[in-house]
Amino acid sequence: VPQARAGIISTVEVLKVMEAFVNEPNYTVWSDLSCNLGILGTLLSHTDFHEDIQVFVRDVFSPIGERLGWDPKPGEGHLDALLRGLVLGKLGKAGHRATLEEARRRFREHVEGKHILSADLRSPVYVTVLKHGDSSTLDTMLKLHKQADMQEEKNRIERVLGAISQPELIQKVLTFALSEEVRPQDTVSVIGGVAGGSKQGRKAAWKFVRDNWEELYNRYQGGFLISRLIKV
Predict the structure, then answer these.
(1) Which sign does the torsion angle of CA 16, 18, 21, 22 carry?
(2) Would you say residue 8 has pLDDT above 50?
(3) The pTM is what?
């Protein structure tokens, strides 16, 4: 992908190489593929090819997603659990119908307390339902954040809130980022999640940072968080 971004080789060639890894079981390989497809998706988000990339993601990730399934298999290792979360999250964000339906079902049971999601499935499920959700979905997620006893769960939710798509809900997430509900050191994660969530999110996050620059700068001046904020 760096070579494609530099114009040395065509993006089409990169995508053909990616297709060759469809039967690869290795987590590190899929993590790299996911990261690089994310970069391509960002680059193409301002073009007519954005939906084509989503179709490509669904095509490439669905075979490994079907093999892994949603539930752990006997004898599988830690990397298999990581791979499952990575693949299901990628498929869910890309709008893979079966993944979206199952994520919504499991999310509903999680919220109702019928069947609590395992830690490794929470991020992919949260991302999926938010990406394709509405104001009710966001309100439920914010309620889960408020009720969470563990800071780890609060941080997990904070990182995925930016997946929400509607402009008015993106603004709600950004306002939440500066609220007392979020620790000052975690505000950047929420804003960064919005910036990385969509084209609309990037624009909204950049405007939000400019509009609230004085408060943000006073919070983080001289620290690494201000540079991280600008980078995202």
Answers:
(1) negative
(2) no
(3) 0.90
